[in-house]
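User: Teach me something about this protein's shape.
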Amino acid sequence: MTAATTAQHVLVVDDDDRLRQLLQQYLSEQGYHISTAADTKQADQLMKVFALDAVVLDVMMPGEQGTDYARRLKREGRDVPVLMLTARGEQDERIEGLEAGAEDYLAKPFAPRELALRLEKLIARTQKQAPSSAVRFGPYKFSLDTGRLLHQDGPVYLTTSEQACLKILAQHAGQPVARERMAALIGDVHNERSIDVQINRLRKKIETNPSKPAFIQTIRHEGYVLYTDGV
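Assistant: First, the predicted structure itself:
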């Protein structure tokens, strides 16, 4: 059985309700965290919230077509790998999808098992090629690019201020960062106490025991420090 060892988050974009439900159920059973969208507008909203490891994208959809969306993702600098689905398996359609920026291509009808295997290889290949832009600590993965936090069971909602604080700590993993410096980096130089508020909120979201934090710790007279895997 294919298994996503760190609960990789995959977005399935397809206007076929039945296929979306089937893929959500099957891929979830394989260990992936799955979000779904019926069109690219819904996909855009989800991308604003979640850090994604891959997108499964249908070519033929109402409104913006899958190939156009793939081109837009690349144009906007979103480096999430795309696996395109289509009912048309002709060579020119495959070439169009690849030229649009898709990393892989699968023609309908297909076996869910084949899709799962292709996803596994696609994610492994692209993550190996790409420079690391995420930090991991315990069951969490935090994207420095998007500011999104994932737990092994799914995404964790962070406010903009919480994202900003966690990003600063992640960029200096293992090194204490003074409250004054964090406030200056965020642009809130006149309210250092707000940093304490955001740190307390973060601890409540990620620590098993917020009063005895394992990841975000306080170093006396130095500031806050985030301990990530390997640090």
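Now, about its shape. Residues 1-6 have pLDDT under 50 and may be disordered. The first helix runs from residue 17 to 29. If you'd like, I can walk through any region in more detail.
User: That's plenty for now, thanks!
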